Amino acid sequence: MLRIAIQKSGRLFDDSVALLRDAGITFGSSPNRLRSPATNFPLEIIFLRDDDIPEYVEGGVVDAGIVGENVLLEKRKTVQVLDRLGFGACRMSIALPKTTPYAGVQDLKNLRIATSYRVILEDFLQQKNIHAEVHEISGAVELTPSLGLADAIFDIVSTGSTLLSNGLREVETVLRSEALLIAGPVLSAEKQDVLDRLLFRMQANRNAKGHRYILLNAPNDRLDEIVRLLPGMKSPTVLPLVTPGWCSLHSVVREEVFWDVLEQLKAAGAQGILVAPIERMIL
Ligand code: PRT
Ligand code: ZN
Prior knowledge:
By secondary structure, this protein is an alpha/beta fold. Helix content is 27%, strand content 32%.
């Protein structure tokens, strides 16, 4: 039985639950639950505040967890990062009041910077050899300059609208973050096996999302050219059509290029092109 911690509520909750459910795992996730055993997989889901997850994973209270990279870096815990999950994307930036001039990091010298992420900020300042006064506060960091409590802030930014509505502008991006799957430094063989099965399922889903299934009819004399456009997983499947001189071709195409490939296929004489989503894909 593997124990995995996910955020109890907040920005990572929905995507974390969806990630596990898409991997075929069934469990309850009602808001007042603290733990929930999966009914069809040797997994127990523990619901925690995101700030606690790195420590619980490091200490072996849970075996794995889903947490923002920003939180992991701030907590400085020793864990394995097994996967980058592609959700919870944000950046951590230094922002100044719109009216404060800024020419480069040197302008941060001796400023009072408010943040909930002291460790990450201090690392950055040290790396740049800048002395500034770091004020650690637990919330509403963006209000501190207008209250006269700080000259600058260091905080999470995603759309930037919070900064904008507080009269602030982003001047340095220190970190780009997304949700990570982490695990303890040492796991038993049995737990590692469950984790590998989970990773396999997550990978199959991710591959499927990044690809489309494509079917088309091709004139035999243009087949080589069309096959070159569609390398597929190994090579495309080609089947003869009843109509002489034509065949049907099945393949997969990468999501990010599929419109370009479609245009090229049309130009190469392909007809009756069908593109379908893929549910799972194992390479
Ligand atoms: O209760 P718990 O401690 O578990 O949750 P929390 O309140 O500490 O965290 P939560 O749920 O707000 O965020 C969890 C994680 O989501 C963070 O650690 C990040 O990894 C990630 N994430 C992604 C974000 C954002 N985007 C984000 N925009 N976390 C916070 N924000 C804040 C940001 O600070 C700003 O104040 O959202 C506000 C809006 O951002 P803009 O730029 O879109 O206006
Ligand atoms: Zn938190």
